[in-house]
Amino acid sequence: MKVLVIQTRYGIGDMLIFLPYLRAISQKTGVKVSMLAKESSKANDLFKDENFLDEIIKLDDTNDKILGFSKLIKEIKNKNFNKVFIFNGSIRYRLLAIFSGIKEIYQYPFFTSKDVIFQTAKIFTENYVNKVLSSKPKLNLNPKSIDEAKNKFNITSEVKNVVLGISASGPTKRWDIKNYIDLAIKLNKIQNCKFFIAASKDDMELINKLKNSGIGKNCFSLENLSIKEILPIIKNCDLYIGNDTGFMHISSALGIKSIGIFTDSPAYSYSGYSDNIIAIVPVGETLESTTHDTLGKDKISFEEVFEKTKKCLIN
Fold first, then answer.
1. How many other C-beta atoms can be found within 10 angstroms of the C-beta atom of residue 144?
2. What's 25's domain CATH number?
3. In a domain? residue 27
4. 109 pLDDT exceeds 90?
5. Structural domain tally of the chain?
């Protein structure tokens, strides 16, 4: 039997939220699954040490949208899948399954939108596997890679190792870099810390502000490393503190306590799935009310962030 899973959301965080359900489908069907996914989800890097995955079929400009639909049908049809699980309510992907000759089709209700991402996926998968599933992802890594990263990047227990997630998908989702600098300086006064800056080359302005600040000598930036290289570094750390980014979801899935600052994204959808994530929302908002267009980056309490971070580091 050959099984296809279609999960076409863009983000790293999205992909990790689906991890428990991908694993459950593989276990129930008794085979490794293939997955249709976007390159931006970094599924290949994230799941390199997992045993539920057969292959990633890349969804890109050549086989996506209307112009690439016939090419995608041919690609899927040639693989002779018996079952497909479609984690969205798109008619397009139902047609893809039908035209590709897949006999057993499981899919969200048509036009599913504005849902709580992990709840919809959980209910959908539980209905198939016929048992209650945890929504908490647990990402596996090769122990050897964890030890190698620890030695290569001089990660020791003599200091607290903290991931600073200063990046975000847009300016409204980023807590001001000055706040992170002030936070790091204040934390380092009560506990010696080494800060790993989790950001990309597109964030060099922010990275350089941190490096050139009073805490810069305690910082190491990850912008030149791949996700594959970053995973074991984060696994060796004590805490994540930062914006709602893929790095927050990675940290949480690796079992690292993660303080997520939600200024302009659905806080409950992207934190409620795991007790590893401690969500901080703008003053006057709740987990449920903080969503797109909240625009609350100037309403985050610095003292709340500091106190919760301090508590996690000292305990």
1. 9
2. 3.40.50.2000
3. yes
4. yes
5. 2
Q: How far apart are CA 72 and CA 200, in angstroms?
A: 31
pLDDT digits (tens, 9 = 90+) for 10-30: 999 999 999 999 999 999 999
Provide Rg for the chain, Cα atoms. Answer: 20
Boundary residue ending a domain (100, 129, 158): 129
Residues 234 and 278 in one domain: yes
Is the Cβ–Cβ distance between 196 and 220 less than 8 Å? yes
Residues 59 and 168 in one domain: no
Q: Give the contacts of 178 (CB within 8 A, at least 6 positions apart).
A: 209
Q: Comparing C-alpha atoms, which of 18, 97, 48 is closest to residue 273?
A: 18
Compute the mean pLDDT over every residue in the chain, rounded to the nearest whole number: 96
Same domain, 196 and 307: yes
Do 300 and 195 sit in the same domain of this protein?
A: yes
Looking at the structure, tell me whether residues 39 and 173 fall in a common domain.
no
Structural domain including 91 reads 3-129
Position 314 scores a pLDDT of 83
Q: Note the pLDDT of residue 70.
A: 92
Q: Per-residue b/e over 166-180, b at no fewer than 16 CB within 10 Å?
A: bbbbeeebbbbbebb
CA–CA distances in Å: residue 63 to residues 74, 85, 189: 10, 19, 53
Cα 228 from chain centre: 13
Q: Tokens 């941190």 label which residue?
A: 210
Q: Where are the alpha helices (DSSP H) in 104-174?
A: 117-129, 143-152
**Residue 130, phi-psi category: left (phi > 0), alpha (psi -120 to 50), beta (remainder):** left
Cβ neighbors of 273 (< 8 A, separation 6 or more) are 17, 117, 118, 135, 136, 137
Q: What is the pLDDT of residues 143-162, one digit of tens each?
A: 999 999 999 999 999 999 99
